[in-house]
Amino acid sequence: MSPAGDRQARQSVIDTALKAISLGINHGAAGNFSRRVEGGFLITPSGIAYERLRPEQIVFVDFDGNAEGAWLQSSEWRMHRDIYSRHEAAGAVIHVHSTHATALACLRRPIPAFHYMVAVAGGRDIRCADYATFGTAELSSAMLAALDGRRACLLGNHGQVCFHDSLDEALTLAIEIEALASQYLAALAVGEPVIIDDAEMDRVIAKFGDYGRQPAAVDLPE
Ligand SMILES: [Zn+2]
């Protein structure tokens, strides 16, 4: 593969963005999607509706933030770059403004262990990062703090972000985060959910497998 990524790799970024829309976890030109390639990553461009995207419009960005090509990279490229730099296992990053995750993020409410599937993000809860202006280094550092030991978090007054080994796995995780946010809000609407204790969550986390392990080998429930 050339450093800028081949056409198939670029198309896979578009396909994932389109799937996110058809699955109802993103809309319009919101959010951004990327995958790691040699020397950097391929990311969706800024402000172009995903339905109209062509492979050549996907932007290659190196780890110093230099973009290659005629199109402007997503304004949130820094979050993606910082995840790839911090987390060696990250092969793909997805950031979306999915409705329920965003609603919780607007309440600045992390998702506690109200359901054992919260462990899918890697720990006993899913944190909510402090608010900072989109596209800034401040937002990125707030995100990295919220991602410590996790592969997903909410972003205050903004949305959610997650990473995984591949685009498909990251998309599955983003869908799960949105489902958990929706279930948590539904439970909160009628009462105060019972929170699973730390010892039990640690058992669940151990059953899900070590952080970074391939999901195919993880003992995920039906
Ligand atoms: Zn955003």
Q: Which features would summarize this protein structure in a list?
A:
alpha+beta, eight-stranded mixed β-sheet, 8 strands, globular, binds zinc ion, 222 residues, L-fuculose-1-phosphate Aldolase
Q: Any overview of this molecule?
A:
- The protein is of the alpha+beta class.
- The chain has one domain (7-210): L-fuculose-1-phosphate Aldolase.
- The chain contains six helices and eight strands, in the order H-E-E-E-E-H-E-H-E-H-E-E-H-H.
- Strands 4-3-2-1-5-8-7-6 form an eight-stranded mixed β-sheet, sandwiched between helices.
- A hairpin with a 3-residue loop joins strand 7 and strand 8 (159-164).
- It starts with 6 loop residues before the first helix and ends in a 14-residue tail after the last helix.
- The structure holds zinc ion (ZN).
- Zinc ion is lined by residues 76, 95, 97, 134, 158-159.
